[in-house]
Amino acid sequence: MNFWRFFLEHRAEILGATLEHLELVLIAMAIAIVIGVPLGMAIVHRAALRNVALGLASIFQTIPSLALFGFLIPIPFIGGIGKRTAIVALTLYALLPILRNTYVGLTGIDAALLEAAEAMGMTRSQIMMRVRLPLALSVILAGVRTATVITIGVATIAAAIGAGGLGTFIFRGVALVSDSLLLAGAIPAALLAIMADVLLGRLERRLKVV
Amino acid sequence: MNSIKHMEKPATNGNGEAIAFRDVYYRVENGSGASRELVSGVELAVRSGETLVLLGRSGSGKTTLLRLINGTLLPSSGAVEVEGRATREWDLIRLRRGIGYVIQEGGLFPHFTVADNVALVPTLENWERARKTARVEEVLNIVGLDPREFGGRKPRELSGGQRQRVGVARALAADPKILLMDEPFAALDPVTRAELQKEFRELARRLGKTIVFVTHDLREALFLATNIVLLAGGKVVASGAPNKFLKIDHPEVRAFAESLVVADADRVGESA
Description:
The complex is a heterodimer.
Chain A lengths: L1 H8 L1 H32 L4 H16 L2 H8 L10 H25 L3 H9 L4 H31 L12 H9 L3 H29 L3
Helix pairs in contact in A: 1-9, 2-5, 2-7, 2-9, 3-5, 4-5, 5-7, 6-7, 7-9, 8-9
Chain B lengths: L1 H7 L8 E13 L5 E13 L3 E6 L5 H8 L7 E6 L2 E2 L5 H6 L1 E5 L10 H5 L1 H5 L4 H14 L4 H4 L9 H13 L5 E5 L7 H18 L2 E6 L2 H7 L2 E6 L2 E6 L1 H4 L5 H21 L1
Parallel strand pairs in B: 3-8, 3-9, 6-7, 7-8
Antiparallel strand pairs in B: 1-2, 1-4, 4-5, 9-10
Helix pairs in contact in B: 6-8
């Protein structure tokens, strides 16, 4: 019950942190989509670029998040303490699921359809835009959904480098051994992740072409 | 616009041949650097307006020959001529838009409506909307589908036979002189299949298209063809009109003929 009192008393701060958290996630996701989807389209017909792009994205994904934030701090322009570094790190994390799903979706099209498209005189770019992309949409969105859920989680760690968000409560809660503080960060973060998952999951099913 | 220009050109090379294979070889490299010959020294002519059936077992090179005609494959040596011009010299996009293509299950795009599927080549060719709509209605009627009932449906809302009809309508939409059909009826149930074969034979005669039809079914070949070409191991092993084909003395012809007899014997056995 202690927690509820704390929550009610600090609801404005919690809401502010939640919005800050959302802002980090949305900006990072937007950048990751703008890079990841076109890059996924570009690597369909380019094997060398494909290996480099998927390889790099996988490497980013394997770096522990706290370490990645740390690596970025000393880098000029993108680094430093604050939101910008956090957004760069979150974007790098979100990139792999989006890139990989875009590639898998675009190349997983029924071979007979691609054959028919080619035989009817569609150019490679027409096949990409009118056949591959619309049919891959739900798979691409599944990647966006995975990336969003990961990013909401990882963004809590962004507080460690001064980017704000719900992580602020969690880190403070750990330092002060206060369950209320900790939960004030953890519960909204978990709710955000669940909501994003459900909403994007619905959209994904709607886009699916049977 | 371009397509209209090219359609007004003579459809043959002057000998009445719409398509000609001149000593065509097609090889693919396999991993170890060795090459495998899928088509070996094929000489073949398809006369304008005829229905040529390419008959053969799986892997005999039938589909490869079709793909050599629309330039989705180019010969390793020799030449495939379409309307008197080698495929190597064609603008391949132009060539393909002038050739109708039908595959098993129609190869329809699941995210397009029936009308959009049928209008595909006219859309690529930037036809005006009114002309496109009129043409979609016309070809859907030709294949026996009511445009008002079926135009707005998605392919998944159709039966196999209806999908195949849409596939034929789509191939006919831009009024190509040549149709390529790759086992179009193979996935259908026997009754629907027989219906479509019958309708298609009448349609082929009425429209006067040059048709190259791939099948492994001798019965279908005999029924539809004006000329049958039998392939084995990437080579033409026999060819002739349906009424003479079975008299050709060649082991592969006999093998196909026996498949017919065995199938019939089975049927008699079942009904007894």
